[in-house]
# Entry
Amino acid sequence: MRRFYFVMLFFVLIACSSEVSTYSHPYSKYFYNYNTEPKVYRYRDVIHGLNEQFHRVYGVEDSEGKHIVVERYVQDGRLTEAFNFNLDSLNVMDHMVVNALGENEKATLYKDLFFPKSKDEVVQFTSKFSGISDSTVFLMEVNRRLSDIKMRQVLSDSLECIKLVENAIYTLLNPFTKQESQQALETVSYYAKDIGLIEWYDTQKRSHFQLEDILSQEKWIKLISE
# Structure
């Protein structure tokens, strides 16, 4: 835990500027704002009250332009995966997962679309990465569509949100034996104007996460270090 604390402290020291930029995507106002100062979104599972997730969100700029990075952590501070979004298109540029060995692995992207541009459009995201053993791989295939725009209570405010419905198929494949197993999952998520992701649940209601707080990086580090 001490090692993790000092790594995150390094991020605090280098993340010292912020700005807001416009996007070209028609629904970009419902995505995260571009800000080089990291913010940590704290979500709680309202079905299993002790279960939390943290999403660390920040903007970066390099030779390829500006991006928004979303890192996902479980409640004890372990990183599980990260997405790198292009600022203008909101397409996924990179997908990183933490594999069974605890190593950061860059997934192979076959389809990179994330946000639909209209109600009639169904976008597809497909990513492949290592499975639970050396001989297996995971294939994640997600179809996502815009279902509705409505007002929802977000923290202490009533905000305009888009509702996204996604149908995902997770396939565990052994390319040598050709054996595979699949699991399908339908998920509903809400993105609020000027905030980003504020809620998601699977339609069987095995979990239901809602935004509980938006923390500074300093407060988050203190929280998970206790």
Notes: The CA atoms of residues 15 and 120 lie 39 Å apart. Confidence is low (pLDDT under 50) at residues 1-21.
